[in-house]
Amino acid sequence: AAAERAVRAAVAANPDRAAPARRLLQLLIETGRFAEAEAQAAAILSRWPDEVDTLVNGGVLAHRAGRLDVAEARWRRALALEPSLHRVQLSLA
Fold first, then answer.
1. Residues 33 and 61 sit within 8 Å (Cβ to Cβ)
2. Cβ distance 38 to 5 under 8 Å?
3. pLDDT digits (tens, 9 = 90+) for 8-67
4. Which of 30, 61, 66, 88 is most buried, by the most CB atoms less than 10 A from its CB?
5. Start-to-end Cα distance in the chain
6. Phi, psi dihedrals of residue 57, rounded to the nearest 5°
Protein backbone atom coordinates (compact mmCIF):
# COMPACT_ATOMS: atom_id res chain seq x y z
CA ALA A 1 0.00 0.00 0.00
CA ALA A 2 2.82 2.39 0.82
CA ALA A 3 4.53 1.70 -2.50
CA GLU A 4 1.30 2.35 -4.36
CA ARG A 5 0.77 5.63 -2.52
CA ALA A 6 4.31 6.67 -3.44
CA VAL A 7 3.82 5.80 -7.09
CA ARG A 8 0.48 7.59 -7.25
CA ALA A 9 2.12 10.63 -5.64
CA ALA A 10 4.85 10.50 -8.29
CA VAL A 11 2.21 10.34 -11.03
CA ALA A 12 0.43 13.35 -9.57
CA ALA A 13 3.67 15.29 -9.13
CA ASN A 14 4.89 14.50 -12.67
CA PRO A 15 1.83 14.63 -14.94
CA ASP A 16 3.98 15.39 -18.00
CA ARG A 17 6.19 12.31 -17.62
CA ALA A 18 5.18 8.86 -18.76
CA ALA A 19 7.60 6.94 -16.50
CA PRO A 20 5.63 7.28 -13.23
CA ALA A 21 2.39 6.41 -15.02
CA ARG A 22 4.06 3.32 -16.52
CA ARG A 23 5.30 2.30 -13.09
CA LEU A 24 1.77 2.54 -11.72
CA LEU A 25 0.57 0.36 -14.60
CA GLN A 26 3.25 -2.22 -13.79
CA LEU A 27 2.32 -2.18 -10.10
CA LEU A 28 -1.35 -2.76 -10.92
CA ILE A 29 -0.45 -5.68 -13.19
CA GLU A 30 1.89 -7.18 -10.58
CA THR A 31 -0.85 -7.05 -7.95
CA GLY A 32 -3.43 -8.66 -10.25
CA ARG A 33 -5.65 -5.61 -10.52
CA PHE A 34 -6.22 -6.04 -14.20
CA ALA A 35 -9.31 -3.87 -14.66
CA GLU A 36 -7.54 -0.95 -12.98
CA ALA A 37 -4.44 -1.71 -15.02
CA GLU A 38 -6.40 -1.59 -18.26
CA ALA A 39 -7.87 1.77 -17.26
CA GLN A 40 -4.37 3.02 -16.47
CA ALA A 41 -3.08 1.77 -19.83
CA ALA A 42 -5.90 3.61 -21.60
CA ALA A 43 -5.07 6.79 -19.66
CA ILE A 44 -1.40 6.52 -20.61
CA LEU A 45 -2.22 5.89 -24.26
CA SER A 46 -4.59 8.83 -24.40
CA ARG A 47 -1.69 11.06 -23.36
CA TRP A 48 1.21 9.19 -25.01
CA PRO A 49 -0.23 7.15 -27.93
CA ASP A 50 3.20 5.96 -29.07
CA GLU A 51 4.16 4.39 -25.73
CA VAL A 52 5.16 0.98 -27.11
CA ASP A 53 5.40 -0.94 -23.81
CA THR A 54 1.98 0.35 -22.80
CA LEU A 55 0.54 -0.61 -26.18
CA VAL A 56 1.85 -4.15 -25.69
CA ASN A 57 0.71 -4.46 -22.06
CA GLY A 58 -2.58 -2.72 -22.85
CA GLY A 59 -3.15 -5.23 -25.61
CA VAL A 60 -2.59 -8.12 -23.23
CA LEU A 61 -4.97 -6.57 -20.70
CA ALA A 62 -7.64 -5.95 -23.34
CA HIS A 63 -7.26 -9.51 -24.63
CA ARG A 64 -7.60 -10.83 -21.09
CA ALA A 65 -10.84 -8.83 -20.71
CA GLY A 66 -12.23 -10.24 -23.98
CA ARG A 67 -11.85 -6.97 -25.86
CA LEU A 68 -10.12 -8.54 -28.83
CA ASP A 69 -10.61 -5.59 -31.18
CA VAL A 70 -8.88 -3.27 -28.72
CA ALA A 71 -6.08 -5.79 -28.15
CA GLU A 72 -5.50 -6.16 -31.88
CA ALA A 73 -5.49 -2.40 -32.46
CA ARG A 74 -2.99 -1.83 -29.67
CA TRP A 75 -0.70 -4.61 -30.83
CA ARG A 76 -0.83 -3.45 -34.46
CA ARG A 77 0.07 0.09 -33.34
CA ALA A 78 2.97 -1.28 -31.29
CA LEU A 79 4.24 -3.22 -34.32
CA ALA A 80 3.94 -0.15 -36.54
CA LEU A 81 6.21 1.68 -34.11
CA GLU A 82 8.56 -1.22 -33.42
CA PRO A 83 8.34 -3.99 -36.06
CA SER A 84 10.85 -6.23 -34.27
CA LEU A 85 8.42 -7.14 -31.46
CA HIS A 86 8.24 -10.86 -32.15
CA ARG A 87 6.10 -11.63 -29.12
CA VAL A 88 3.48 -9.20 -30.43
CA GLN A 89 3.64 -10.79 -33.88
CA LEU A 90 2.96 -14.15 -32.22
CA SER A 91 0.05 -12.73 -30.25
CA LEU A 92 -1.55 -11.44 -33.43
CA ALA A 93 -1.03 -14.76 -35.18
1. no
2. no
3. 999 999 999 999 999 999 999 999 999 999 999 999 999 999 999 999 999 999 999 999
4. 61
5. 38
6. -65, -40
CA atoms within 13 A on the CB side of 82: 14
In 1-93, which residue ranges form alpha helices assigned H by DSSP?
2-13, 18-30, 34-47, 52-64, 68-81, 86-92
Distance CA 23, CA 39 (A): 14
Instruction: Reduce the DSSP state of residue 14 to 3 states and report it.
Output: coil
75 in Cβ contact with 91 (< 8 Å): yes
State the pLDDT at residue 70: 96
Cβ contact 27:37 at 8 Å: no
> With bands split at pLDDT 50, 70 and 90, how would you rate the model's confidence at 1?
confident
